[in-house]
Design brief:
By secondary structure, this protein is α/β, with parallel strands linked by helices. The protein has seven helices and seven strands; from the N terminus they run αβαβαββαβαααββ.
Length: 207
């Protein structure tokens, strides 16, 4: 939901973190859309480096086809093993963390924090679970309504839901915020929320 709008928001928010000589990492880069937009937006800045990582060989191949800039590089790699060298000014991860276990997320958030410069930003978007169980069914049904408006049949909606059972591990909005706090981020804000989808911006502050 609101995929194009979220990408626009990512680019807008990046303006507060990406400067000359900055480094940007996209974890779970898919076909490179986010880094394409970011590299275009910051084309006027000096020596900005963009690194994208994805576990899928196909996605990385498609990303390399899509983005033809010398300062944008894509790698097939497990995001849990990314070495944040040089240090990051801005890290994005769109709809990727939700597939990691709590332990994997905790470890990765900590490693990202250690790899961020002071004042650097981590931006994630996630499918989230409801804070109260009474809302879970409401959010799910409204999301299914959205998918049907996009042309999916009821059978396709159910098939998709079944395919991610046990794979998708969403946290609630508050659980995401608490996990970010526990892993070293003191400044956290929800910048997007639509039913059971949310975006978070966390800033590293060593003071």
């Amino acid at each position: 939901p609101f995929y194009v709008e979220i990408q626009r928001m990512v680019v807008e928010l990046s303006e507060y973190f990406v400067r000359d000589h900055s480094t940007v990492y996209d974890l779970g880069c898919s076909t490179g859309t986010t880094l394409e937009l970011l590299s275009n937006s910051h084309a006027g800045k000096k020596d900005v480096q963009f690194f994208g990582f994805d576990l899928s060989k196909f996605m990385v191949r498609e990303a390399r086809k899509k983005v033809n800039r010398s300062n944008v590089r894509f790698f097939q790699k497990n995001i849990s093993r990314v070495d944040f060298t040089p240090p990051a000014d801005f890290v994005t991860s769109l709809f990727t963390m939700q597939f990691l276990t709590m332990a994997e997320r905790r470890s990765l958030f900590t490693r990202i924090n250690q790899g961020l410069i002071e004042g650097g930003g981590l931006l994630i978007t996630e499918k989230v679970s409801a804070e109260h169980s009474c809302f879970e069914e409401i959010w799910t049904e409204l999301y299914w309504d959205f998918k049907r408006r996009q042309g999916f049949t009821p059978e396709q909606v159910i098939e998709k839901a079944n395919s991610i059972r046990g794979v998708l591990k969403p946290l609630s909005t508050n659980e995401n915020i608490e996990l970010l706090k526990q892993t070293g981020y003191s400044r956290i804000e929800v910048f997007f929320k639509w039913y059971n989808w949310a975006g978070f911006l966390a800033v590293k502050n060593n003071a």
